[in-house]
Amino acid sequence: MAAVSCIVLARVVIYLVAAPNYGYFRDELYYLACGEHPAWGYIDQPPMIAWMAWLLEHTIGVSLYAMRLLPMLADVGCIVMTALLARKLGGGFWAMLLSSLAVLVAPISLTLSQLFTMNAFDPLLWIWIAWLLVDLVQTGKERNWLWIGVLTGLTLLNKYGVLFLLPGLIAGAAFSQLRRSFVRPWFWTGCVLATLISLPNFLWQLHRNFPFVVLVNTVRKNGRDVMLAPLPYLAQQAEMIGFVSSLLVILALWFFISPQGRRYAFLFWGFISVLGCMLILKGKFYYVAPIYPIVFAPGAVCLERLTAGSALKWFRPVYALTMLLVGALVAPTAIPLLSIEEYIAYTKKLGIQQQKFENQPQSQLPQIFADMVGWEERVKIVADYVHSLPPDEQKITAIGASNYGDAGAVDLFGSKYGLPKAISTASNYRIWGPREYTGESLILMDEGSPEKYEGHCKSLKLVARPDNPYVRPDENLPIYHCVGLTPNLQSLWANAKPWK
């Protein structure tokens, strides 16, 4: 655990260095806005991330250090739980060290645990469930099902991706000694607890005709997701965890068919369930990320056993050092450790090409970094223009944004520049409505198709054409001022098509 503590300390140092760099991520801005409207559900995610945003707002604040503290702590928890799972599976010093190091240096872990998003918390919640299942096999503590039920319910309130893990775990349990639990009250009580915890969010979605499902289908039809064939997808998975750690994944599969690991094969089926579903559905590559700590642990145990002989013990420190060196080489591409100019020079020198999270146009920065810059700059442009208007007109001017990034930026930075909260038809802003605005005076941020307002605005004036080379090209769109919108905003919202 002393060695694991050193890895934890390294993760804290990375947080201290990188947390304030660049700026707020697009989704972070949106989740802060959701935190101002606590609810049991949202169009595009379960409610837990918004609840945490509300908690931050009312406790330590929403500075970059404050917002990214919880994701870092979740990653620290995942590092520790991975080491504990390795020990639980029979591993010693090297198994604990290698498995926890694999979590630390995996590029996708660094990326997702840097940002205040739902993706930062799934790995910890998933591996905690896995540890409880392994403990149940070893000790027979049926009460573990209660904790598994609670964690499953909480995980569903964080992100729905756990629904791809559960079928594999349950199917694997059905073919292991855990199947005896299926006729005992503890298992079913755990199921009831998971259901009760997640039920309010399900009812929220049901009441609105499942807008999350509609949104996912719309995104896929619009071609926003990067869809790959199986082999390129698997290659991207190897890149996502840093290539070197792929050996642990392969060895984990060997561990699960060994006599010592066979009784934990339900973890293997959980892995296959997640990866297989994502291959079939062509899901985003990082949707598989939460499962890897669960397989790093048994993989490290297997490697430790295979190298137990004196002739192979040298491989353990060499492998750890290789993992660390490759991780350090790739880290600046996964987390903002360098300035923007240094990052561009670094990637050009090494010929590193960043993975695309979505089918979006790229700037000089990859999407994950481009979505962290330019937000306050755009808000200031709008504020300077609004304050140039007559006082009476300023009072009735609404700040409209076509995407939740701009809307969230206005909500966060607007008070600093004397702006009201934004309105938008994007994501959950649609539910929050046009507030008291009618459209007599409306700022249109990020508007790439001004022609659609012809005939609907008495006048349409170009405010500015932002030109930041580091933001995504689809964020460098003009800003307009529409006067006298018809029909007015209240009518547009009242007549908007419901989610169905």
3D structure, described in words:
58% of the residues lie in helices and 5% in strands. It has 500 residues and is mostly helical. It has 2 domains: 2-334, no CATH class; 375-494, no CATH class. The chain has a 5-stranded mixed beta sheet. Strand 1 (397-401), helix 22 and strand 2 form a beta-alpha-beta unit. The protein is globular.
The number of distinct helices, counting runs of at least 4 residues, comes to 24
The parts where pLDDT drops under 50 for at least 5 residues are: none
User: How do the strands of the widest beta sheet line up side by side?
Assistant: 2-1-3-5-4
Helix content: 55-70%
Distance between the termini: 52 Å
* Number of E-type strands: 5
Q: What does the main sheet amount to?
A: 5 strands, mixed
Mean pLDDT metric? 92
Which oligomerization state do the chains in this entry correspond to?
A: single chain
From the spread of the alpha carbons, the general shape counts as: globular
**Secondary-structure element pattern, one letter each:** HHHHHHHHHHHHHHHHHHHHHEHEHEEEH
SS class: mainly alpha
**Please, how many domains?**
2
Question: How much is the radius of gyration in Å?
Answer: 25 Å
Strand content: under 5%
Q: Keywords, please?
A:
5 strands; mainly alpha; five-stranded mixed sheet; 500 residues; 2 domains
How would you briefly describe this protein structure?
The protein has 500 residues and is mainly alpha-helical. The protein is built from 24 helices and five strands.
